[in-house]
Structures are given as C-alpha cells and as structure tokens.
Write a structure and sequence with these properties.
There is one protein chain. With about 300 residues, the chain is mainly beta. The protein has two domains: about 30-180, Immunoglobulin-like, CATH 2.60.40.3590; about 185-285 and about 295-300, Sandwich (Immunoglobulin-like), CATH 2.60.40. The protein is built from one helix and 20 strands. The protein has one helix spanning about 1-25; strands spanning about 25-30, 35-40, 45-60, 65-75, 80-85, 95-100, 115-120, 130-140, 150, 155-160, 165-175, 175-180, 185, 215-225, 230-235, 240, 245-250, 260, 265-275, 295-300. The strands form four sheets. Strands 1-3-8-6-5-9-12-2 form an eight-stranded mixed β-sheet, with no helix packed on it. A five-stranded antiparallel β-sheet has the order 13-14-19-17-16, with no helix packed on it. A four-stranded antiparallel β-sheet has the order 7-4-10-11, with no helix packed on it. The model is unreliable at about 1-25 (pLDDT under 50). This is Spore coat protein U domain-containing protein. Keywords: Capsid protein, Signal, Virion. It comes from Polaromonas jejuensis. InterPro entries: Spore_coat_U/FanG. It holds the Pfam family SCPU.
Length: about 300
C-alpha cells in the first residue's frame, strides 16, 4: 500500500509539471531602434525622426495562436520628457524638451493605461510572430540659447502580456540630437530666426563740403551664435573714398580678437561711418551721390 501510494503522488506531480510547461510556452521579447536628428537653435518647425519598437513572440504548436500585448515607454532616466547634452550639465542651456509619440495616433507614449500601445499578435499557423510599433521622436520648435553638442537620453520600452501584468521584457533605445556650432547675421531663413535679431541695412553718410566737424552715421545689426561658440567679426573694408571724400568704417564692439563667446541669443553690433571734417570733395553740382557696394562682414567661428 505504501509503495503504490507513493507512485501515484509522483505521477500526479509529473502531470502537473507538464501542464504548467504547456501553459507558459508563449515567450516574448522586445527590440528597439534608436534615432538621431539635427536641431538649430530657435528653429521655426519641429524636428522629428521615427524609430521602431518590435514585439517578438514564439509559441508551441499546442498554444493559442493569438497573444495580447501592452507596450509602454518611460520618460528616460531623468524622469521627464527631455534630453541632456552629453557630458554637460542639467541646466536649461544644456537640455532640450522632447516628446516620444505613438505614430499610430500622435499621442504621448507613456507607461500607464491608454498611454501604452496595445494589440493582439496573430500567429496564424506559425510558431513565431512579430508586431512592429513606430514611435516618433520630436524636438519642439522654438527652443533657443542651447549649447552646441550631442544631446542624448536613455528610454526604456516595457512589455506586458496582460493589461495589469508584470513586465515580461524590456528594450532600451537612446535617441540623440545634434546641435552644431553655428552663427548667422540678422534675421535670416525662417528656420534660424532669433528673438530681437536685426539684419544689416544701408549705411548713409551725408556731408557738406568743408564741414567743421566730423560727420557720422550708424547701422545696427545682430549676430546669433550657438551658446558657448567663440567667434570673431571683421569688415572687408574699413576705409575708402567716395566723391573725393575720405571715409572710415568702424565696428563696435570691435568683433575681436579676443574672440567673443556666443550666448545663443542675438548679440548687437554697430557699424559707424565717419567722414572727417574740412574736406572739399569733388561734387560739381549742388548735390551728388555715390555708392560703395560689396562691403562684407565675415563671421569666423
């Protein structure tokens, strides 16, 4: 009696073990691709790039041929929708606000409730199946005064097989954003606009023969360089003669050297034109005009 009873227990245990293995045979993993994009300080439109998070599952022939899934995405190690300059600080000039969106509906991709992506994976007659899910990584327009460099952050995708189940798989992806060192003068292309920017204009000098004092006129403009980018300015011409009148052009501030450090915002400059006093000129009529073109402002960075 004792031997027979023990054998029945072993058989029951073996049957239970076999049943548990059969019910747990569907296994799943996640894979994810990273993306990278370029961004210009203060650009007028969003910068976007798309990547993929893929659910991969396998089953036994005795398992169901469908599997539900829920995929969430966290907000990076910083706990917020932003990326930080690689090797830089965590202050505003060293971070960019970003979004990770579900491509299917354009909403933020999160880790809870309807913020996740969910669906049903169909195997058909196969023993493996995959579901590729597209995310859109977005850097919002209008962010300015950022330091040149590479911005990155680690995001984690999590897989659940029931709506309130445990995470059964994770995948890491690390989007990067490149802000290259750049400078522009005034208000140029719409994608590079800067608050307070002033474009160069015509400098007009009026002079009366044998004027008792120097005659001057000014022209204002701005230069916008990526934060912490060093640069110098130079005029291609600082003196010349028109209608027999000698004139000079001077830049203020001088434009370096030493080099100027960009702030990421529009920095103001003035060109002052001067005709010295006491010059006769060569005008043979009551009023004369002359124009000098091709004076170039060079920004070196």
């Amino acid at each position: 009696m004792t031997v027979s009873y023990a054998l029945r227990l072993v058989a029951a245990a073996l049957l239970c073990s076999w049943a548990l293995q059969a019910n747990a045979a569907i296994t799943c993993t996640l894979t994810a691709t990273s993306v990278n994009l370029n961004y210009v300080n203060g650009q007028g439109s969003d910068a976007t790039a798309s990547g993929t998070i893929t659910v991969n599952c396998t089953r036994l022939s005795t398992d169901p041929n469908t599997q539900t899934y829920w995929v969430g995405v966290n907000r990076g190690s910083a706990g917020a929708l932003r990326v930080f300059r690689h090797g830089g600080g965590a202050t505003s000039p060293d971070r960019l606000n970003v979004s990770v969106l579900r491509n299917s509906d354009g909403n933020n991709w999160t880790t809870v409730g309807s913020g996740r992506a969910n669906g049903t994976l169909s195997f058909g007659g196969a023993l493996s199946a995959s579901a590729p899910l597209t995310y859109d990584f977005l850097v919002a327009a209008g962010q300015s005064s950022k330091t040149a460099g590479i911005y990155d952050e680690i995001f984690t995708a999590n897989l659940q097989l029931t709506t309130a189940g445990a995470n059964v798989a994770t995948a890491i992806f690390a989007p990067t954003v490149s802000i290259t060192a750049a400078c522009f003068v005034g208000q140029v292309a719409s994608g590079n606009t800067a608050p307070g920017a002033i474009s160069p204009s015509t400098l007009t000098l009026a002079y009366t023969s044998f004027a008792p004092t120097n005659q001057t006129a000014t022209m204002n403009f701005t230069v916008d360089c990526t934060r912490n980018t060093t640069y110098t300015l130079a005029l291609s011409l600082t003196s010349g003669t028109l209608l027999g009148l000698n004139y000079t052009l001077a830049l203020s501030p001088s434009g370096g050297p030493p080099a100027i450090v960009g702030s990421g915002l529009a920095q103001p400059y003035t060109v002052t034109g001067t005709i010295a006093a006491g010059q006769a000129g060569t005008c043979a009529t009551g009023t004369c005009t002359a124009t000098k073109t091709g004076v170039t402002l060079t920004v070196t960075y």
